[in-house]
Amino acid sequence: DGGITQSPKYLFRKEGQNVTLSCEQNLNHDAMYWYRQDPGQGLRLIYYSQIVNDFQKGDIAEGYSVSREKKESFPLTVTSAQKNPTAFYLCASKKDPLVPISGANVLTFGAGSRLTVL
Amino acid sequence: DQQVKQNSPSLSVQEGRISILNCDYTNSMFDYFLWYKKYPAEGPTFLISISSIKDKNEDGRFTVFLNKSAKHLSLHIVPSQPGDSAVYFCAASVSPPGNMLTFGGGTRLMVKP
After folding, report:
1. pLDDT confidence of residue A106
2. Averaged over B65-74, what is the pLDDT?
3. Maximum Cα–Cα distance for chain B, whole Å?
């Protein structure tokens, strides 16, 4: 079955440590995205990538970094510069980044990773 | 400044009755709207969508209504079932360039047996 795999599901971090969240997809989607969810708030876009070796900042990129060396993989690093990293992180993908979002071209999400800073 | 707002953080409905979830937006450039459903510890899953050229889209028990003049959309679930209990996110997008989704804060629906 095709889908998006995020790991780890739960992660604990001490202040000052960098952590990397994994996101792998076997949907052959071109575009990948990282969102952050906080209680009572909508999903906020951190970074996105429309093609291998290229990525763009979203609305809340400060304190995060990404890479897109392979089409299937889009890891997110939460750095020590991120002042409030405790959140639920969601990775998503879309088949064609240039085709408008529609019922046939929607974002598909992974199950998420919950990061807690101790 | 939230461009997409869901003003009701939670909603409780009796099984078999209608659930109505509301969403307001401020950006008149939005031309496509979606509803996602999310269970705890899972990613959101796509539920139903509507283009700005329509005012209604129906899929089984789920109907989305769009009122462009009021910048308001709603999701109707009839009849509501206990399995519908989840958090529902409204999202909106602007056609290229960008194609990004802007999400509302979500509404937690609880359907009581």
Report:
1. 83
2. 97
3. 45
